[in-house]
Design a protein that fits this description.
Elements (H helix, E strand, L loop, with lengths): L16 E6 L2 H8 L3 H6 L3 E3 L15 H18 L3 E5 L15 H10 L6 E7 L4 H14 L4 E4 L1 H4 L4 H12 L7 E8 L4 H12 L9 E7 L11 E6 L2 H6 L10 E4 L23 E5 L2 E6 L13 H10 L11 H10 L8 H21 L5
Parallel strand pairs: 1-2, 1-9, 2-3, 3-4, 4-5, 5-6, 6-7, 7-9
Antiparallel strand pairs: 8-11, 10-11
Length: 373
């Protein structure tokens, strides 16, 4: 296990960072290999993959769908036992149902809370969650004595009935705003100045702004596609960082920083067939206010170097001034081992793990030392 040795982090008694992550294997491994210090400093919001629901039984059930949800719950408990997170199942087919006609939200949380060793998980509610979804979250909150995490966009907060909708959701869940965490999710941002203004407006529009247990501002600016970048080295600004810095006290209270790590909020590959894709061997490495992008060639290109390009990328990183050193995080140690030939070059999933693990460690480092900068 590799640790981020930050003096200030060990004195923290609360989470300081809210990353929104896909619950895919690369991200799962990245979370599992975080130091205990980093795990205590974050409250990830996990988007569960919208598994295909294909009912074939007379009862309208899909056993494979149930198994995948149960596996996700089991993996989350395994890698995040004892730590806090929020889970959003809002992308799952609204017509899906699990065994005994259980709503997928109810089934998932039954699996979570059925384990003796488990993570401390809260369900996510969105402004546009349908009635069945809200009812399932409400039953989970009441039966397991937990509160939801509300995830609202700037457009949601601009609606005239926002306060009424939120109050109704809280009432159904049997909780108050003081028990509930609020996430303002800006999604993908393309500019800095305009996004700073938009964030200020959204935070100012949050109902009961002083009451929430926590208030987070989340945004992501990593490009949707790397097709606009030629092969080589590039520097990309992390726009979400200055947007948060300029708004971290605008609501008259602490606003927690959040982002989408090294991934676009809606990754382009989510809608493509992996069998026909030729993804590039590219590396994303977070450093302070930027990402270092090492753009490679397609891994399936004829007569190309394939995944061995990652060895060259590892060598480039180790020789770069941005590299934090092998003791900074699991991801950084992995980079060094690949560079030295101690580990194989890995594949696309390996480098998602490396990038996300390093990114979270880097952001925790930034936030813990923010007072010194």
């Amino acid at each position: 296990m590799f640790f981020v040795f930050i003096k200030e982090v060990f004195a923290l008694d609360k989470a300081i960072y809210r990353p929104i992550l896909r619950f895919k294997r690369g991200e799962q491994t990245a979370l599992s290999y975080l130091s205990g210090t980093a795990k205590s400093a974050i409250k990830p919001l996990v988007n569960i993959t919208p598994h295909s629901f294909d009912p074939i039984s007379p009862e309208g059930l899909d056993d494979v769908f149930d198994q995948r949800l149960a596996q996700d719950a089991g993996r989350l408990n395994s890698i995040w036992a004892g730590y806090e997170a929020a889970v959003d199942l809002g992308d799952i087919d609204s017509n899906a149902q699990c065994v005994q006609a259980a709503h997928p939200v109810r089934y998932f949380f039954n699996c979570i809370y059925g384990d003796e060793v488990r993570a401390n998980i809260n369900p996510v509610l969105r402004f546009n969650s349908d009635d069945d979804y809200i009812a399932a979250v409400a039953s989970v909150c009441r039966d397991f004595n937990i509160a939801p995490v509300l995830r609202l966009t700037p457009d949601d907060l601009a609606e005239p009935e926002t306060e009424t909708v939120i109050s109704k959701m809280l009432g159904e869940c049997g909780v108050s705003s003081q028990e509930t965490e609020m996430v303002v999710d800006m999604g993908y941002i393309t500019t800095k100045g305009r996004s700073q203004i938009m964030a200020k407006g959204a935070l100012s529009a949050v109902p009961f702004v002083e009451d929430w247990a926590t208030l987070s501002l989340v945004a992501g600016s990593f490009p949707e596609s790397l097709s606009d970048f030629i092969v080589g080295r590039h520097t990309i600004e992390r726009r979400e960082w200055p947007v948060w810095l300029s708004n971290r006290n605008v609501a008259g209270r602490e606003v927690i920083y959040g982002d989408y790590a090294t991934i676009h909020p809606i990754p382009v590959e989510d809608g493509l067939d992996p069998k026909t894709m030729n993804p590039s061997a590219s590396v994303r490495y977070t450093h302070e206010h930027t990402w270092l992008l090492l753009r490679g060639y397609g891994v399936r290109s004829r007569d190309g170097a394939g995944f061995t390009q990652f060895v060259s990328h590892a060598n480039t990183l180790v020789g770069s001034p941005e590299y934090r050193g092998k003791d900074f995080s699991f991801g950084d140690a992995k980079i060094m081992r690949i560079s030295q030939g101690e580990d194989k070059q890995g594949n696309l999933e390996t480098w998602v793990t490396i990038g996300v693990n390093h990114h979270i460690s880097e952001v925790v480092y930034q936030l813990a030392n923010l007072g010194e900068s």
